[in-house]
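fyi for ur records
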Amino acid sequence: MSTTITGTRPQTKAPGVLCLGLARIGYETRLYFRSPDTLLFTFFFPFIMLGIFTAAFSSSGNIGTNPDGTGGVSVGAYYLPGMLAAGMLLSGVQNLAVDIAGERSDGTLKRLGGTPLSPLSYFVGKIGQVFVTAILQAALLMLVARFAFNIALPSEPEKWGTFAWVFLFGVITSAFLGIALSALPRSGRSATAVVTPVVLVLQFVSGVYLQFNVLPDWMQNLASIFPLKWMAQGMRSVFLPDSFAAAEQTGSWDLIWVAAALGVWLVVGLVLSRVTFRWIRRDV
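which gave:
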């Protein structure tokens, strides 16, 4: 790996930046799966919530039934899209915001700042880890839904195409926003207390735990500002029958708006993460 020297710190060239970042993906992923707290509150949390909602509300019958009692989908099938969206948010925003804040607090980032590792390489490692864990989580969640809760999965290729780009946009956006949000906690100890309420409130107002169409208009409008609402809506378009589009704010899936909103938030997250990221807090 070739470097050029600027001042006292070696500057890694572009190919080396990418190689260092790719090399860190495996390291970051191993650290992720070695943390019981992280696994419980980011990886397995959607599984737990899907099981709770399915067990608690299945006795009330299907959701979205016709007046004659036919049609609709099971409670588990209705909540699966929201849990997939929540998984993306937890894997990116909560996981990275808490993790990076902790690394800054315990001096890990300060030590990394004295090495040839650039912020870009660090980002590649973190975002790569989010991708790996989010893919595993989504795949396992769908397997559990299919075989444990007997939830039918889409069979149309175009549905899976929609799933792919919503998932891709959602994971990248969540990862960048997680990096940006990590600058907010003043210490690793306070990170969970700062980040978790934000993530939890977003899940409640964005149609993850509550049926989005029964929320007040002002709450739906508020949720529309943030990316989780659009991630959940995109996932609902994949896993729910087209008749459920009538329950959305505009009476349709609005996939163009889903793509636009996630694209805007991706750019916002990218800019904020680069502007706010520091190896050491400025007020330390």
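Residues 12-54+74-276 form one domain. thats all i got for now
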